[in-house]
Write a structure and sequence with these properties.
single chain, alpha+beta, Helix Hairpins, OB fold (Dihydrolipoamide Acetyltransferase, E2P), five-stranded mixed β-sheet, five-stranded antiparallel β-sheet
Length: 665
């Protein structure tokens, strides 16, 4: 059935994006795009309720608590998600449905912060535990040590309440987010995509001092459970929190009907640009706790609250220029340079324009007013041009016909939208190729930063990749001319280059920069070929037999090694002493066709060593547990992967049992 196949595809897609958002703190699509997928899934399940299984995202909350170094804690009160709505008609249905249930019911409308949920448990007035949402139903992760580093988290209540459980949202202000990314950039670390991403990564730090330095904030937005105090409504609860000195949601409005609810939603929308933190919607809640209990909850969401989600944030700005860059493959990329605007917690002033076809479709001119938004709340993109504000005499933009770096005529390949510089000696291509070659996932030459690469290319010391391994012959000249720096800096880099000669052939293959061949693909390929030299003569048919290597990747490899210049470069690398051989040795076949996941703290052996043991005996490694997993190899503190394996009836074994599988005992 075509519809059922589409339904399964939707489930897989949403589960994938849940993993990126909740567990990896690395979303790839916008909240709006995710919400649209969820709405589509709900519509199908409404039509076909018989298709719903426990694996459906509509039956689960959030992500699984994954940090294996942490400790998981059982939830006393489920930390459910809210039902998202996107139209005023849906808000009206919710409000009128509640009023039919109880005439005169009161609502509270408050802003929805774009952060991550945290439960705070107080025993006898003292903070006992802080727990992340985790799976929302069964367990979350204990992050008490980190929560104590958040200035808004009270260690002690003013009154020794017998028990109090609060739910709040951890977030990062826009200013603190900018400071964090400035520090990340100074330290050469990966930048966080947005404030929520920064807050999530910070709360999961193993070192609480790092959490303290990054200055997280928290708003409490709900009282989940209590004893020893008399509270009967949400607004009364906020009054109680105020007396206890607890920081709660900053903007909220009381409402009694649909019109007042909508007015409150619109007031909150107007705050969006004025707040020093990100919001992505407004929450509408029933005020009375008794009515909440009466309404109850569905599998994933409470029936007494909804979240109205605002559309993706977009803003107008003026296009100042279009910058043209040349990539590692020679592909020419135009980039819009515009007056800086603030979107989703960051200031942006650049966005890719992809290619000439994209520019033509937009009908874009320098000086135009353009509408910019963020894809996945991460990547700035140009949506459209406001032609009503086009300046007089504006001319539609066209890419130059020559490479802006080397002056070579640009070529547009058949049936392709991109223009390319085909000059193999183009400095821009060479610089990017060298940066890729020396990078962590490739030859991993420590200390070989962009500044050194640019200098060595511009001064003619590197004309192709093999020249990297001849720099030692020019040591005295490099020191005399201070190309890299003083003797110590030069020797440090030359020693790192020398050490990289012993790398596995898979790292060299990754470093060559062949299209679609990253470190995972390179590793798989070098399990089948004993050296780069063998790979050079492999046919398309041989390559497509390699696990996860399709025809496109195989063609890219064949094309790369068909070029005499590339084959000559490999020969020069060999003569320089660079290892071309694969380090993979298959010692057995006991684990053929089996897929393993390794998790937890292992004794006397590292996870990498266990992974190598599995692969050398024919097994495959996966990072996540699924129905296709053959075995979970678990150590201490196995965490959520163990829970997932048990729920799917995946066999769980230890290292000794793995060795027994291999030996056949």
């Amino acid at each position: 059935m075509e519809e059922f196949a589409h339904y399964q595809e939707l489930i897989n897609k949403i589960n994938y994006h849940n993993e990126r958002y909740y567990n990896l703190d690395d979303p790839q699509i916008s909240d709006y795009e995710y919400d649209m997928l969820s709405q589509e899934l709900k519509a199908i399940e409404k039509k076909h309720p018989e298709w719903i299984t426990p694996d459906s995202p509509t039956q689960k909350v959030g992500g699984i608590a994954k940090r294996e170094a942490g400790v998981v804690v059982a939830h006393r009160v489920p930390m459910l998600s809210l039902n998202d709505v996107f139209t005023y008609d849906e808000v009206k249905d919710f409000v009128e449905g509640i009023l039919q249930e109880r005439r005169g019911a009161k609502f509270v409308v408050e802003l929805k912060i774009d952060g991550l949920s945290l439960a705070l448990r107080y025993e006898k007035g003292k903070l006992d535990k802080a727990i992340t949402r985790g799976d929302g139903i069964i367990q979350g992760e204990d992050v008490t040590a980190n929560a104590l580093m958040i200035k808004d988290v009270k260690r002690k209540l003013k009154d020794p309440i017998e028990y109090l459980e609060l739910r709040g949202e951890v977030y990062m202000t826009n200013r603190d987010f900018e400071l964090l990314n400035e520090l990340q950039e100074i330290n050469g670390k990966k930048l966080f995509a947005n404030p929520r991403n920064g807050a999530a990564g910070t709360l999961r730090q193993l070192d609480p001092n790092v959490t303290k330095e990054r200055n997280l904030s928290l708003f409490v937005f709900n009282i989940q459970d209590f004893s020893g105090v008399d509270i009967s409504s949400h607004l009364q609860g906020y009054e109680f929190l105020k007396k206890q000195g607890i920081k709660f949601i900053s903007h909220y409005y009381e409402a009694h009907n649909y019109e007042e609810v909508i007015a409150a939603i619109e007031k909150i929308a107007q705050l969006r640009d004025k707040l020093d933190f990100e919001i992505d919607g407004a929450v509408v809640k029933v005020d009375d706790y008794g009515l909440r209990d009466q309404l109850g909850a569905a599998a994933k969401t409470p029936r007494w609250a909804i979240a109205y989600k605002y559309p993706p944030e977009e803003k107008p700005t003026r296009l100042l220029d279009i910058e043209v860059n040349v990539g590692r493959t020679g592909r020419v990329t135009p980039t819009a340079i515009f007056e800086p605007i603030r979107l989703c917690g960051t200031t942006v002033a650049r966005a890719t324009l992809h290619n000439q076809d994209f520019i033509d479709d937009l009908d874009i001119c320098i000086g135009d007013t353009i509408i910019v938004y963020k894809s996945g709340e991460i990547i700035p993109k140009v949506k459209e041009v406001d032609k009503s504000k086009r300046p007089d005499g504006a001319v539609r933009y066209h890419l130059p016909d020559k490479c802006p770096i080397c002056g070579t005529k640009l070529v547009r390949q058949d049936n392709m939208a991109d223009y390319k510089c085909v000059n193999p000696q183009c400095p821009s291509k060479l610089i990017k190729n060298v940066v890729n070659f020396v990078g962590r996932d490739a030859m991993d030459i420590k200390g070989f930063g962009l500044a050194y690469v640019e200098t060595l290319v511009e001064k003619g010391y590197i004309n192709d990749l093999s020249d990297i391994y001849h720099l030692s012959l020019q040591r005295e000249e490099l020191i005399a001319n201070k190309v890299i720096g003083l003797a110590k800096s030069t020797d440090n880099l030359l020693n790192a280059i020398e050490s990289s000669k012993d790398n596995d052939g898979a790292k060299l293959l990754t470093a060559l920069g062949i299209a679609n061949i990253g470190k995972t693909a390179a590793k798989n390929i070098m399990k089948h070929f004993d050296s780069i030299e063998s790979l050079m003569d492999a046919s398309l048919e041989e390559l497509t037999k390699v696990n996860d290597i399709g025809e496109i990747s195989a063609k890219a490899i064949v094309e790369f090694f068909s070029q005499p210049a590339n084959r000559a470069m490999i020969e020069r690398l060999k003569k320089a002493g660079v290892n071309l051989a694969s380090g993979f040795v298959k010692t057995g076949s006991r684990l053929d066709d089996l897929t393993f996941v390794v998790t937890g703290t292992l004794t006397g052996i590292t996870r990498k060593e266990v992974g190598d043991l599995i692969e050398s005996n024919g097994g495959k490694l996966s990072s996540s547990v699924s129905k296709k997993t053959s075995y979970l190899v678990a150590g201490e503190n196995a965490g959520s992967k163990l829970t997932k394996a048990q729920s799917l009836n995946v066999p769980v074994i230890d290292v000794e049992q793995l060795k027994a599988l291999i030996s056949g005992e």
